[in-house]
């Protein structure tokens, strides 16, 4: 099989599939049915996060250490020998980041990366891939700022692939594959840009 490329990823996402690596590095493509998504407009931060957001405990940055976030996500699963983020996947997604189609939201404390997430943006669809943290709530706060960005840039779809307890806490729901593909077609056809809007704009107090 040929090496995974950024073009392969773009083709896959547009058609509702995404790759994951097996423990031996073999890549497989997935298209789950049902599909998990997070409704962008209904998300609300948990009350426990509000003090952290209001006090700006974490320094939030965009796309300053994309590969570092990916490696953090891979390390978060290193205790189970079944990480799906292989070196081939890191290289391909880093290529997408260089093209302006893959993005990271990063949380720092004292200039140290302590959590974050990454995903792919095509049209007005954002495909969330993975998140990690080394300090409690870092990834949750990063997700909050991801949602603010998607709302400000009028994104219509936030794909989270599979349902699990982690994404449920952010409001994820499952929908049939055919419904997801209809939403995907509309969202990828609409122009939108994942723009790192001025961070100060996001630091408004949460009542």
Give the end-to-end Cα distance, rounded to a whole number of Å: 53 Å
Oligomer: single chain
Strand content: 15-25%
Residue share in helix: 25-40%
Number of helices: 7
- Which structural class should the secondary elements be placed in? alpha+beta
Subcellular location: Cytoplasm
Organism: Emticicia aquatica
Protein name: Leucyl/phenylalanyl-tRNA--protein transferase
EC number: 2.3.2.6
Report on the architecture of this protein.
- The protein has 207 residues and is α+β, with helices and mostly antiparallel strands.
- It has 7 helices and 9 strands, in the order αβββαβααβββαβαβα.
- A 7-stranded mixed beta sheet has the order 4-5-6-7-8-3-9, with helices on both faces.
- Helix 5 links the parallel strand 7 and strand 8.
- Helix 1 crosses helix 4.
- The longest helix is centred in the C-terminal third of the chain and has 15 residues.
- The chain is globular.
- InterPro entries: Acyl_CoA_acyltransferase (IPR016181), Leu/Phe-tRNA_Trfase (IPR004616), Leu/Phe-tRNA_Trfase_C (IPR042203), Leu/Phe-tRNA_Trfase_N (IPR042221).
- Its EC number is 2.3.2.6.
- This is Leucyl/phenylalanyl-tRNA--protein transferase.
Produce the secondary structure layout.
Elements: H1 6-14, E1 18-21, E2 27-30, E3 35-37, H2 50-54, E4 59-62, H3 66-75, H4 87-98, E5 102-109, E6 112-122, E7 125-133, H5 138-152, E8 157-161, H6 165-168, E9 173-175, H7 177-189
């Amino acid at each position: 099989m040929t090496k995974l490329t950024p073009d392969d990823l773009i083709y896959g996402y547009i058609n509702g599939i995404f790759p994951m690596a097996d423990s031996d590095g073999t890549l497989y493509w997935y298209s789950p049915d049902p599909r998990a998504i997070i409704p962008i407009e209904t998300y609300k931060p948990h009350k426990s996060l509000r003090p952290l957001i209001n006090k700006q405990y974490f320094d939030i940055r965009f796309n300053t250490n994309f590969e570092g976030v990916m490696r953090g996500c891979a390390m978060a699963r290193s205790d189970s020998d079944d990480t799906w983020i292989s070196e081939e996947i890191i290289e391909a997604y880093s290529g997408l980041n260089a093209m302006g189609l893959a993005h990271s939201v990063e949380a720092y404390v004292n200039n140290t990366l302590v959590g974050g997430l990454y995903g792919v943006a095509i049209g007005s669809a954002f495909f969330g891939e993975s998140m990690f943290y080394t300090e409690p709530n870092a990834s949750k706060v990063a997700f909050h700022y991801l949602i603010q960005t998607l709302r400000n840039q009028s994104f219509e779809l936030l794909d989270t692939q599979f349902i699990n307890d982690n994404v449920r806490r952010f409001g994820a729901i499952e929908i049939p594959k055919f419904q997801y593909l209809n939403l995907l077609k509309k969202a990828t056809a609409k122009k939108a840009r994942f723009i790192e809007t001025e961070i100060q704009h996001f630091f408004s107090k949460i009542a």
